[in-house]
């Protein structure tokens, strides 16, 4: 049963990952990325790595997806047609949400049916910490450096100058003279005939 469930989740993960890079709409890509994260979390749950599954959902779905959507909005992508046709995007959102719900129910169901009888001497979170900070310390640090570079690149992309923004020059404002701003105009007085 777990093998069958694993293959189903793996197929959904491959489908979602391929849709992330093939869809044209960035919001649809973000929704499929959420589906890919949930599929990965379900696979971790089937492998009895509960901490990794919950961390994947909390960190990636909760925090990273919010960051992705924030960057999408900061990049000035023309999302007006997307906002105007919200109902048109509702079917894809319902499909992804229903698939995520089915995955979670199936993962918990398969995990409970074939739960291991043997209790490990060391909890999986502690074992993960021991392996991560001893055997895989350098790859862990390299991944952290890559994520830092990616974050700096995302900030740099959003800091480009905007043509719509209005700027003030305080130095020019201080040096202004009355003659530059005010012009006296003499006009003849109007008379009633």
What would you note in describing this structure?
The model has no long low-confidence stretch (mean pLDDT 80). Helix 1 (2-22) runs antiparallel to helix 2 (26-46), helix 2 (26-46) packs antiparallel against helix 3 and helix 2 runs parallel beside helix 5. The chain contains nine helices and no strands. It folds into two domains: 1-118, NADH-ubiquinone/plastoquinone oxidoreductase chain 6, subunit NuoJ (Four Helix Bundle (Hemerythrin (Met), subunit A)); 120-160. 15% of the residues are buried. It is 73% helix and 0% strand. It is an all-alpha fold. The protein starts with a helix and ends in a 12-residue tail after the last helix. The longest helix has 28 residues, at 86-113. The radius of gyration is 28 Å and the shape is elongated.
Radius of gyration: 28 Å
CATH topology of the largest domain: Four Helix Bundle (Hemerythrin (Met), subunit A)
Q: Largest beta sheet, briefly?
A: none
* The top level CATH class name of the largest domain: Mainly Alpha
Classify the secondary structure makeup into a structural class: mainly alpha
Total beta strands: 0
Instruction: Count structural domains.
Output: 2
Q: Mean pLDDT score, rounded?
A: 80
Number of helices: 9
Q: SSE string, helix = H, strand = E?
A: HHHHHHHHH
Proportion of beta-strand residues: under 5%
Helix content: over 70%
